Amino acid sequence: MKTIEWRQESSGCAMILLDQTLLPTQVETLEARRIDQLVDAIQRLVVRGAPALGVVGALGVGLILDQASREAWDRERIEAEIDRLRNARPTAVNLAGGVDRVRPLVPVGLEAVVEVGLMMAQEDEANNREMGKRGADYLLATIADRPLTLLTHCNTGSLATTAWGTALGVVRELHARGKIKEVFADETRPLLQGARLTAWELQADGIGYRVLPDGAAASAILGGLIDAALIGADRIAKNGDSANKIGSLAVALACEAAAIPFLVVAPESSIDRATPNGDGIEIEFRSDEEVTTFAGKRTAPLGAKAYNPAFDVTPAKYITAIVTEKRVYHPEQGESL
Amino acid sequence: MKTIEWRQESSGCAMILLDQTLLPTQVETLEARRIDQLVDAIQRLVVRGAPALGVVGALGVGLILDQASREAWDRERIEAEIDRLRNARPTAVNLAGGVDRVRPLVPVGLEAVVEVGLMMAQEDEANNREMGKRGADYLLATIADRPLTLLTHCNTGSLATTAWGTALGVVRELHARGKIKEVFADETRPLLQGARLTAWELQADGIGYRVLPDGAAASAILGGLIDAALIGADRIAKNGDSANKIGSLAVALACEAAAIPFLVVAPESSIDRATPNGDGIEIEFRSDEEVTTFAGKRTAPLGAKAYNPAFDVTPAKYITAIVTEKRVYHPEQGESL
Q1: Which of the residues A173, A184, A191, B327 has an alpha carbon 20 to 30 A from that of A296?
Q2: In B, residues 209-268, which contact A (CB 8 Å cutoff)?
Q3: CA dist., res. A311 & res. B216, Å (int)
Q4: What is the pTM of this model?
């Protein structure tokens, strides 16, 4: 089952998304034929993950052009809808990046836009495979050439990309080489992408894992159970400061205290060299209800308010290495990107 | 509504516990008349919190003596049941401490045991009031004499003690002095004592608060939103290493990185001077289901295993101060207890 699929029929175009809000208990797809459906799906996290959002941004412009031709939109309306798609979520630079990459092709037409979108999906998988190899080589060389116990946060697998994964791509590559002992998957509150999605992917691949509360990561790390931690990124500033799912920073601090490697694995397209450091990264805040309720049941008293940033920024000084498809950067040592 | 109540009637004795597994949506009590009911209630966290468990340990011996007289137990059976109560949960030293305090009175009889148990409850409240004052004085002197924004983890209020609270007692004292701006309450996965219990207590007292995912604490702390963090303790080793609810360590590391105070507030009875450091503290591991399910709904794939320690140990070097009813210790500066 693919995370994102593009369908082009005589009746019109559609983006078929594996609905990640329903996993792991239900495996269902959502079909978006109109841009408002797609924007809603992005905001509800039916599809998420920076690299996946890059492809969704590009193909989403295709969806807009298709709807525009069906509904005879003028140029102004088309541009407004493209802006709405571009701003559906603010933190991951890839969504805006995907939109911007195909925007110049809008005058050329739907086919040209979709061609680039599909090419981006292919690039994404190739990049992930390359990151996987680089990350695996790095860890085996840095730690030891033996099966490793790794900790990860949120979901950076096939579901967050179009295939293979970024940080989870490194795990898959190591597993293919027989070098994974066990994976500790942070459950990743409030939306449990680790427990729901990463666990689902690891289980499907037959990789041994355990789910843990986010608050237990420091105990596992300082208790000597973990060889290294690795995460993805939604946006990386020029100095290496990296925005990623809320809770990543605490993992980095624990790795720093335990003196074990903390890796960010992300494509070059997640690097935002126009932003000098993390202070310039806009953090999305999400609804109180994500924290104060679960599966329709209240977890906090009626009237409780929440502090619910979707992302945090890990300062470069806590990041041992940033692994991209091109190379390994060492921000902890002051290397800029 | 009291956390723990002792009832002695002609028909026998009973411990009435506010059922903390049902809060905040249901406010119900559980009546324990037999020791197996009480041990089950302790293990299911119907009653929890180190100081509360001290009182439960002492009064629980009373419950055993009452049942023993009804059911004509011999001395051996009584001792075995007392041991079972003492070992119902391993990490909080107070449970064993409460049992041990009244055990020499077993030959004297039920009344003597219960008298000490009820006296411990009174001492607990008086100690908490004293800790509250010391902690409040310390924070206002160390940070600034202005309304503070404080972060706390798990529940250390009336529900974890018999009244007022330890770390939350400091919050209550500061609130009474008009010196609380806002409290950030970590939700405290997996059992959500922060979202369910601390939020409930703060709301009842009209103290402004927000609930946050445990993983968001580091972001709030390094983002400059928090003046200090304060927690309770289940056991404090002689060197100051402190065991507390899982997730406490990550809060301490974030405070260290942000250079803000991290306080442990606990009675002298939580100090275990026979244990030189944290390595000697036994950590309770709890069931996988606490992590992999929520309210009967799966949060992880069928077959998922978990890493679910109930506590972690924060090394003394990350603890700015330990506040007890007697004094303020400074473990970060190498002071032993």
Answers
A1: A184
A2: 209-220, 222, 246-250, 253-254, 257
A3: 8
A4: 0.96
